[in-house]
Specification:
2 domains; alpha/beta; about 30% helix; about 400 residues; about 20% strand; homodimer
Chain lengths: ~400, ~400
């Protein structure tokens, strides 16, 4: 028996007047999801706790059975792992922007003209730097998509309780990074970052990629703005914890990072963009291949509905949900426990995550099929699971797979 | 007002194809249970947490409001209390088998030819022994049913973190007991056990009961194999905790032991076997008598459905549930809060406990009666209790009985 948790990121929503009071999921035509609901057991799920606005990262951790309040130190470690960096417990990781600064170090473009190419050469220039006085700390830097990058500091005596360098606005210089807890460890990290931001400008100002960009009238990527510090947590590997050989099929660095840090095989999918323009056929084929492979557990994340929610794009969200539905028909099999859910609501009205619960349906040979025949936020609430939490999902799945130890006699 | 919790052990199950997708409880004709559901408030209950595979012991503890994660040290203490031994906090208790060993101490029959008589004399021979070098430790030993027995060590400086002597297979000698935590306390217990196992052979080899068995061509019960060590927990008495004079009507030593350790009066029921062949009329009469008595709370456990589940006996499980139903009619009264539930699912397909939730119905004068009209795993999920945990049951019951303190003003 295999287990699959398929998470349609941000799919859940709130009732929308222009949809006659329906949610996008209720308005979308989703015959395959409805089929899963009909042949499964349904319920609503609070990814963390009722009313808690979960991030995708904290929600996924919770659904995988990890306590986000003890494991989650910030987004940095997961983003860093997501671009393939071999992060290690104790490393301090950051998300970064490539940005444009003028000679006074005032940020004129936080995204360096939304730079799309040449970032790997620029990143390499940062990756190989050392900072005077901090020779004991290794600086690991890699480009992510577009203007995004990750930074990892590896060395003794580093803390992660530091403020962001990113001023989050243009027309200002980078913010001075501070040790928020006053500890010498965080102060060391802050000192390194303040040096690194300044040094990055020195290194990148005349970098060939930037010279070329300036010649083309494009904003140069001549400064690095780190934010979202987090110490890489010491996470028990998924396979060690559950005894299941696991793979992760996800589009975004954040969720791929969760796959990496929990020790799953993270499968690359060509054409997966993380947006509504993603290649769902390609994702479908990757899932089918993984199901045919030796894996006993798959974590799947598809991100487009969340993007549409963040963009307030109602039509796009409905359409994307329908397109996701269309690939599900080929994925339903008898020999797997298949869980379909979302990691949080991303209402188009709010354009951000909310704490509303999400629908969940569990299909498989021995579930107590209930009377729910539609997959939606409200229909699911009448189902046989009633209301559960993200932290219950793995226990329920492992129990159905008969992979749980008995507690007692 | 009296409160009753009646637990039909292992009654809940999963849908079964040969029953048209029904569970045994759904397939069984249970007019009395359905009447309770109709006139009560219903829900599903996770004895411990969703997806956790509870034992009968850990589930009962949880339902009685004790945290099994802090109270439960192993099966030994409850089995020992269940045969009527006056166990005390700090005692180290074990389940044991009477087994057969040859002259090289190789186990030739782990159950001593499923010995049924004479065990009390054999047990007495062990019970009175002392071990050289461990004169400060009292050895308390009593037979249970069949080839089963219990051992209690009482004395200073004993630990319970030791391995089993029972090799769990024939053709091998008893396993050397080891201190699993390396502590001197557990080492002392291990040393005692290793001596006791060897000594038991010396004492029992020529015991008159065994001489007689050998003469009859039966395997002698000439060695003791302890397992399942646990320190007897210091459990607050049920009456001290809740102010209710309580009795326990249960068939198995394990649940009777929970009654003893929580300080309930444990009522003997003639003809109660713990199997599907049990005398349900006799159990019914014992319940009626206890209800007419001064008790304010009754814990009732009937075990046959669990046995049928473990045996994979679908027909037997359905039939037994119907027979249990037939005694319920005489037990429904207006002046009690009556809770009917199970301690866990024991699906006939799995032949062991699973973590699926169980149905629960609460009857009594002031419950918020819901629309559920059938007592079953799935019907209950639509009830007014929604999904609760075992640890909530006593609080809900006491509140309905108006026996709870107010928290706040």
């Amino acid at each position: 028996m295999k287990g699959v948790i398929m998470i349609i990121d941000g799919m859940a929503d709130r009732p929308i007047e222009s949809l006659g009071g329906k949610t996008p999921l209720e308005a979308a035509k989703t015959p395959n999801m409805d089929r899963l609901a009909s042949s499964g057991i349904n319920g609503i799920m609070d990814p963390i706790r009722p009313g808690v606005r979960a991030g995708s990262d904290t929600s996924h951790l919770s659904i995988l059975g990890y306590d986000p309040y003890s494991v989650y130190t910030g987004r940095g470690p997961f983003e860093a792992a997501g671009v393939g960096l071999d992060v290690r417990p104790g490393d301090i990781a950051f998300r970064c922007n490539f940005a444009t600064a003028d000679d006074d170090l005032v940020i004129t473009d936080r995204r360096a003209g939304r730079i799309r190419s040449g970032t790997s050469q620029i990143a390499e220039a940062i990756n190989s730097m050392t900072l005077d006085g901090f020779e004991d700390v290794e600086i690991i830097f890699r480009e992510s998509t577009g203007h995004r990058a990750v930074l990892v500091l590896r060395g003794p005596g580093l803390g992660d309780n530091v403020s962001d360098a990113d001023p989050k606005t243009e027309g200002k210089p980078p913010k001075k990074v501070k040790a928020l807890d006053g500890s010498p460890e965080s102060q060391k990290t802050a000192d390194i970052l303040n040096n690194l931001v300044r040094e990055s400008y020195e290194i990148l100002r005349d970098h060939p990629v930037n010279t070329e960009r300036i010649r083309n009238g494009e904003a140069p990527a001549n400064i690095i703005l780190p934010r979202g510090a987090g110490a890489v947590p010491d996470v028990e590997k998924f396979e060690d914890r559950y005894g299941l050989k696991a793979a992760c099929i996800a589009e975004t660095g954040l969720i791929r990072g969760i796959g990496h840090i929990t020790g799953m095989d993270v499968i690359d999918v060509e054409g997966a963009t993380g947006g509504t323009d993603t290649d769902l056929e390609s994702i479908k084929n990757a899932i089918k291949d993984a199901l045919d492979d030796e894996y006993e557990f798959l974590l799947i994340n598809i991100d487009g509905a969340d993007e549409a929610g963040h963009d307030g794009d109602l039509e796009g969200k409905v359409e994307f949900i329908e397109r996701v539905d269309s690939i599900l028909g080929d994925l339903i099999r008898d020999d797997i426990y298949f869980i379909l859910t979302a990691d949080h609501s991303t209402p188009v009205s709010v354009m951000d995550h909310t704490g509303d619960p999400v629908p969940i349906t569990i299909n498989g040979p021995e579930v107590r099929v209930d009377d729910v025949s539609v997959f939606s936020e409200r229909a699911a609430a009448a189902g046989g699971l009633c209301r559960i939490r993200g932290s219950h999902v793995m226990d329920i799945l492992l129990d159905l797979m008969n992979r749980k130890e008995k507690f007692g006699a």
